[in-house]
């Protein structure tokens, strides 16, 4: 039997971190070697301790964690939201400058249904006059819009631009602040925070006389675990920066 992949989890005390720890501990080919919480320094880890670190911490901490883990010599899988384009590019430059063939995956969502929703929305965006996104999460989520909604809107905006579509029709002349949502790459994104929800997203696309709705619902954090474990198993063979779980799927 081949050696197990040794995994350290950052944010292990959080809801997602706890679920990741349980999933890793239950996988026959993985070994949970470290549970790190707030105040723990990820820079103390070495390749002698772990092969891969999984970060589910906070938007304020995640970029510094990734840089520390790269300097420590580990591969990194990141599920924390709130990444900016500049932060992603700083990580890209760092991992490309490392002498080791390390890999970093930053994924806005690990649920397979969410990854497919993003893919389908990007494909459909070029064929519809109007498009909007509604993302719905629990009220303890720190960022809005969600990383998934932001990435979806950016991909849809790029597809619309490549197709040469005009700006979406909208005759609104007066509105309360935020009523039309956040503008992400020309796509309105609306954030709902409601007790009882976990993670949900609805993409609405419209043409005269027709509407397409693409929706993903995660009712339990268990829905993210197959994607997380897939990333842990494959990141060691993908040096450099990978953004999005889609790159690891046969789509």
UniProtKB/TrEMBL annotation:
Residues 5-110 form the Dihydrodipicolinate reductase N-terminal domain. Homotetramer. Pfam families: DapB_C (PF05173), DapB_N (PF01113). Catalyzes the conversion of 4-hydroxy-tetrahydrodipicolinate (HTPA) to tetrahydrodipicolinate. It is found in: Cytoplasm. It is an enzyme of class 1 (oxidoreductase). Its EC number is 1.17.1.8. SUPFAM superfamilies: Glyceraldehyde-3-phosphate dehydrogenase-like, C-terminal domain (SSF55347), NAD(P)-binding Rossmann-fold domains (SSF51735). The keyword tRNA processing does not apply. The lineage of its organism: Bacteria, Bacillati, Actinomycetota, Actinomycetes, Micrococcales. Keywords: Amino-acid biosynthesis, Cytoplasm, Diaminopimelate biosynthesis, Lysine biosynthesis, NAD, NADP, Oxidoreductase. NAD(+) binds at residues 11-16, 40, 79-81, 107-110. The active site is at residues 137, 141. InterPro entries: DapB_C, DapB_N, DapB_N_CS, DHDPR_bac, NAD(P)-bd_dom_sf. It catalyses: (S)-2,3,4,5-tetrahydrodipicolinate + NADP(+) + H2O = (2S,4S)-4-hydroxy-2,3,4,5-tetrahydrodipicolinate + NADPH + H(+); (S)-2,3,4,5-tetrahydrodipicolinate + NAD(+) + H2O = (2S,4S)-4-hydroxy-2,3,4,5-tetrahydrodipicolinate + NADH + H(+). This is 4-hydroxy-tetrahydrodipicolinate reductase. PANTHER family: 4-HYDROXY-TETRAHYDRODIPICOLINATE REDUCTASE 1, CHLOROPLASTIC-RELATED (PTHR20836:SF0), DIHYDRODIPICOLINATE REDUCTASE (PTHR20836). Coiled coil: none annotated. One of its GO terms (molecular function) is 4-hydroxy-tetrahydrodipicolinate reductase. Residues 114-249 form the Dihydrodipicolinate reductase C-terminal domain. Pathway: Amino-acid biosynthesis; L-lysine biosynthesis via DAP pathway; (S)-tetrahydrodipicolinate from L-aspartate: step 4/4. (S)-2,3,4,5-tetrahydrodipicolinate binds at residues 138, 147-148.
